[in-house]
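The records we work with from here on pair a chain with its fold. These numbers are not coordinates but entries in a learned vocabulary of local backbone shapes. To see the layout at work, look at the sequence and tokens printed below:
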Amino acid sequence: MQNQDARLPHAKTLLRILSSAVVLAAIITSCAPDEPAMPELSFEEALQEKLINAKAGDVIEIPAGTHEMTRSLSLNVDGVTIRGEGMNASILSFKNQVQGAEGLLVNANDFVLEDLAIEDTVGDALKVNESENVIIRNVRTEWTGGPLTTNGAYGIYPVQSKNILIEGSVAIGASDAGIYVGQSTQIIVRNSRAEYNVAGIEIENSTFADVHGNIATNNTGGILVFDLPNLPVQGGRNTRVFNNDITSNNTGNFAPEGNIVGTVPAGTGMMVLANDSIEIFGNRFTDNQTTNVMVVSYLVTGLPIDDPNYDPFPEAIYIHDNNFDGGGEMPDFGPLNEFQAATGGQRIPDIIWGGAILPDEEGKPSLSPSDILCLGDGGMTFANLDAMNGFAAPSLDITPHLCEQPRLSEIVLPNDAGAE
């Protein structure tokens, strides 16, 4: 048996070899170049990543500051809230946008956007498509260069959606409509401001809407309620427009050529086109220089109709208990200019009706004038332009339209905690 002391030198030699290897490895490691650190995501990249990875119940915060965006943002996850620190504090600026059209495109239910601004998008600022239970609160959309044809078409733009609440918001500079809800149902637009758009607030091809407590000023047309042909959803009806300030909507029409709102005369306070069952009350109309309220058939646009299912005639328009102050001094609509000239330069009446009624099989009017337009009190001036006869014999006789209609019902949304 070998003595243990005889084995010690071998063990010491092995220990020295191992120690040297450790030291050498440390030296090699210390001399190796550092691995590159992962680059930090830009704010834009981080925000889009949050939108892509969002889950129901998430709240995505937009901090104060102006955040430069170069590409469209999108969200298609239900139950998400995007929240800033105020419409003048948290700003998403798309003035250097190089990709996409919208600022933010949403296709999601139970969606909330609040307390932020979207500026200078190439196309629409905020588009919400095919969504249900949507709240847009204290949001500003704006094109900061003023009213230009090159601005995006729509500011706040829900379409083909249901249960939509827009409140406390601001829309400025859209080359089509600042606040627009189209082909949708169950809608409230309240306590918002639309300024320097072609159309301030527009409800189009939609049903069951309340538009109230808003300010529409310095647009081409303050508030529009339209029904148009060749759209998937038609038959607009049941809209109440009440307790709004509709003032000095005299900005020249800057819509791109071919847009239907390009036919809206500058100086139009409110225009109802081919829509049914509309109640207009409690509004304050001031200094809209073409006319304060115009109710017309689609035929007045002069555009062809190639949609066999489309009804171009308005019906059951009920206007009552509004306040009118000024307006109608400088119309921007050929038949009204002729009317003014023929009446010695007097101001255009508060309410203008085109005079077109759906004809029956014999070519005679199928409804009475009061079935088309009902004026609930005599505290307004009125003119029938006689459009069906080429504007040949306009009339100031309000008597056929003095009547009352059943009041429309209040719109109540399941997602509106502040319902009155």
User: Anything to note?
Assistant: The longest strand covers residues 132-142. The chain has two domains: 48-121, 123-401.
